[in-house]
Design goal:
Blueprint: H1 7-15, E1 18-24, E2 27-32, E3 36-41, E4 55-61, E5 64-70, H2 71-74, E6 87-93, E7 96-102, E8 104-110, E9 116-117, E10 131-137, E11 140-145, H3 147-151, H4 155-159
């Protein structure tokens, strides 16, 4: 019996170094696949007053209230009108589900450890403060988001009951 790998070990091996890629404009970003729960077309989003503008509100996902963040707005990029390619990537962070609005979902890619590099420093510019690594894979540059950093200021608001 010890020769049979556990299901959780097999699942972990299958998603190790795998990233869901998505785009904002022409830029490709990556999220660690183990964090991704679902990908949705844009559902009804209920606005919540008194929250930062990049948090578009909440939505009901199978009976669970999920906060929704527009990644474009959080990255200080101009807002665009949502279209049929716009989607929400639902991720788990600290046992909470949060939706991320992105322009398009691209692909699931495997990135080998030798393809990663640290984000460069841009002289005090905080443009890379949400990145864990940058990868060059399949002829594309992928900016990998560090979910801990990305959600650092928002988790308290979500968990305190601000939403």
């Amino acid at each position: 019996m010890s020769d049979i790998p556990s299901v959780s070990a097999t699942v972990e091996d299958n998603i190790s170094n795998r990233y869901l890629t998505f785009t904002l404009g022409q830029t490709i970003y990556g999220l660690e696949l183990f964090r991704v729960v679902d990908i949705l077309t844009i559902p009804a989003i209920t606005p919540v007053p008194g929250i930062p503008s990049y948090i578009k509100g909440v939505t009901n996902l199978r009976g669970k209230i999920v906060p929704v963040i527009d990644v474009r707005t959080k990255f200080n990029q101009p807002e665009i009108e949502y279209n049929d390619k716009t989607c929400i990537i639902v991720v788990v962070i600290h046992d909470m589900q949060v939706g991320l609005i992105v322009d398009t979902v691209s692909d699931v890619v495997t990135i080998q450890s030798n393809e990663f590099t640290n984000p460069p420093e841009f002289g005090g510019n905080e443009s890379n403060k949400y990145l864990s690594t940058i990868a060059h894979t399949d002829g594309h540059i992928v900016l990998n988001i560090d979910c801990e950093k990305f959600f650092a200021n928002d988790l308290d608001m979500f968990s305190i009951g601000g939403m």
